[in-house]
């Protein structure tokens, strides 16, 4: 049985780490909350796992500790910012604040951000959107990253290009966070760290041969797009669409000199108020019907209906009440940071 940590204590610990770099406490709290939300919902590769990398960026200057984004355009219902490498979790939350402030007047608010430092788990931003009874769409791409090969190619071109979505429904929201690669880079890195192979041949080596060995990716290989070796043209097309929404609308990406950007993201965010289109009750009636019908579908032998958001929302509620169970390597990394920064780890709540 795993040990558990109080969610508030984990947030305070992460915030203390970020504040130790000179980052303002309010910004440190926002970052800590974002990483915590990812782990609460089970997105363990991009939650508290990313604390260490963000600390390094803050200390090295790769992430700006101070300042505001440069507003490139603003029409009220749309805006485009240049973050100039401000911390990703903080700048995205600022953009969401801006959109939510404007949603009553405009109904639909869309924002883009260029040169944001890595924004981590997209799903982590969704609870505050859905708790306002709004629909949210969030996607990002990484201009300096070429890790996903198009269908029929062995040359990597795209970044993982995740997209997250949320919509209020009945007992839980429709909610997902998926990348346009058949597996996320975080899972490839985790398998390599733990000496494991991947569940299937999700990779190509540098010669274009299919592989389940993480070392093939590290040695110049690529990750397959959604759809895999047979139907990857679908994932490649979606990757292109998301790069248009992020890099294209943001005006910064593949056409620019981006080698020094490392993991910095281009971001597209859209928040929609269902009440701008009609009765909120009618909207919720439709989304609730969809989730209920999905749950009632006859399943394959040994299978179950997996409605996006149901498991993540239940896990979030459970871990907020009973404590957060950290993935073993995350706990190891946080303990190392505790020693390195002389900031005590939160007390263990007890066995889960």
UniProtKB/TrEMBL annotation:
It comes from the Bacteria. Keywords: Oxidoreductase. The keyword DNA-binding does not apply. Pfam families: Ldh_2 (PF02615). InterPro entries: Mal/L-sulf/L-lact_DH-like_ah (IPR043144), Mal/L-sulf/L-lact_DH-like_NADP (IPR043143), Mal/L-sulfo/L-lacto_DH-like_sf (IPR036111), Malate/L-lactate_DH-like (IPR003767). PANTHER family: MALATE DEHYDROGENASE, OXIDOREDUCTASE-RELATED. Belongs to the LDH2/MDH2 oxidoreductase family. This is Ldh family oxidoreductase.
């Amino acid at each position: 049985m795993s040990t558990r940590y109080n969610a508030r204590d984990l947030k305070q610990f992460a915030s203390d780490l970020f504040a130790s770099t000179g980052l303002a406490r309010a910004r440190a709290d926002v970052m800590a909350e974002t990483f915590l939300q990812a782990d609460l919902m089970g997105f363990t590769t991009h939650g508290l796992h990313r604390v260490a990398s963000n600390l390094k960026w803050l200390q090295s200057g790769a992430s700006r500790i101070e300042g505001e984004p440069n507003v490139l355009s603003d029409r009220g219902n749309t805006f485009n910012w240049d973050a100039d490498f401000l911390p990703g979790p903080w700048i995205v939350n600022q953009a969401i604040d801006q959109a939510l402030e404007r949603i009553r007047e405009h109904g639909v608010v869309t924002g883009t951000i260029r040169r944001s430092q890595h924004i981590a788990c997209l799903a982590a931003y969704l609870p505050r959107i859905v708790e306002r009874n709004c629909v949210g769409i969030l996607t990002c791409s990484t201009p300096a990253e070429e890790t996903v090969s198009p269908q029929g190619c062995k040359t990597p071109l795209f970044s993982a290009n995740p997209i997250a979505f949320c919509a209020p429904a009945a007992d839980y929201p429709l909610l997902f966070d998926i990348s346009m690669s058949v597996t996320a880079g975080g899972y490839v890195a985790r398998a390599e760290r733990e000496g494991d192979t991947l569940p299937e041949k999700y990779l190509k080596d540098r010669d274009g041969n299919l592989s389940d060995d993480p070392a093939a990716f590290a040695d110049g290989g690529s990750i397959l797009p959604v759809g895999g070796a047979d139907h990857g043209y679908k994932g490649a097309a979606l990757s292109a669409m998301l790069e248009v929404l992020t890099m294209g609308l943001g005006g910064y990406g593949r056409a620019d000199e981006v080698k020094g950007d490392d993991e910095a993201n281009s971001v597209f965010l859209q928040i929609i108020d269902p009440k701008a289109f009609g009765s909120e009750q009618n909207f919720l009636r439709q989304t609730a019907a969809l989730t209920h019908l999905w749950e009632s579908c006859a399943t394959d032998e040994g299978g179950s209906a997996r409605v996006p958001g149901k498991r993540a929302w239940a896990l979030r509620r459970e871990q907020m009440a009973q404590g957060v169970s950290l993935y073993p390597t995350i706990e190891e990394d946080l303990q190392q940071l505790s020693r390195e920064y002389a900031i005590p780890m939160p007390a263990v709540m007890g066995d889960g």
